[in-house]
Amino acid sequence: MYIETRKNNSMDYKYIEQLLDRYFAAETSLEEENILRAFFSQKDIPAGMEKYRDLFAFQLAEQEEATLGDDFDARMLGLIGAQEATGKTQVVKAREIRLSQRLMPLFKAAAVVAIFLTLGQAAQFSIGEDRSEDEINYANYKDTYDDPSVAYDKVQSALQLIGEGFDAQPTDVVLKDSTVIE
């Protein structure tokens, strides 16, 4: 009897090896994959096939987790019935989303990019620019008038011309209801 059991086990192992070869070639049926799962869920497995145990044990564990319990439908119907009995059903209304709302994340991203570019330009301008050209060198500055009273008269005449230009502008403001303010 021991010899027959050993022969059956070796034949079973050869069959399992054939199933494994077909499994990795994607040629097995669902029934054959279930045979592999059942075989690898046993405690005694040959050492050469031990490396495949985790694969099929994982599939078996995933299959058990993915199925819903027999009482799932009854529980869901009970929850729905409880909501209807208490009148706490929630009505979900569809919202209309405008184009500007859809594009708001894009606008925000564009604003961030514009801020970074502006800050980059400002930093580049302030670091890379030599400001000695903008400063006045008073040592090389020469007056055009030697007499301060002549310079004062020229400035006074220029300001008088500007003042006359302001006086020449109309001072009347006309409102929409045709009232005149002076």
Description:
The chain has about 180 residues and is an all-alpha fold. The protein has a domain at about 1-65. It has helices at about 1-25, 30-40, 55-65, 70-85, 100-130, 150-170; strands at about 175, 180. The protein has a two-stranded antiparallel ribbon. A hairpin with a 5-residue loop joins strand 1 and strand 2 (about 180). Helix 1 packs across helix 2.
**Mean pLDDT metric:** 77
Taking pLDDT < 50 over at least 5 consecutive residues as the criterion, the unreliable ranges are: 1-8
User: How much of the sequence is in beta strands?
Assistant: under 5%
Q: Write down the Rg.
A: 46 Å
Q: What order do the helices and strands follow?
A: HHHHHHEE
Structure classification: mainly alpha
Reconstruct the topology from this structure.
Blueprint: H1 2-24, H2 30-40, H3 53-66, H4 72-86, H5 99-128, H6 148-168, E1 173-174, E2 180-181
Antiparallel strand pairs: 1-2
Helix pairs in contact: 1-2
Entry summary:
This protein is mostly helical and 182 residues long. The chain has 6 helices and 2 strands. Helix 1 packs across helix 2 (30-40).
Salient structural properties:
182 residues; mainly alpha; 6 helices; disordered N terminus
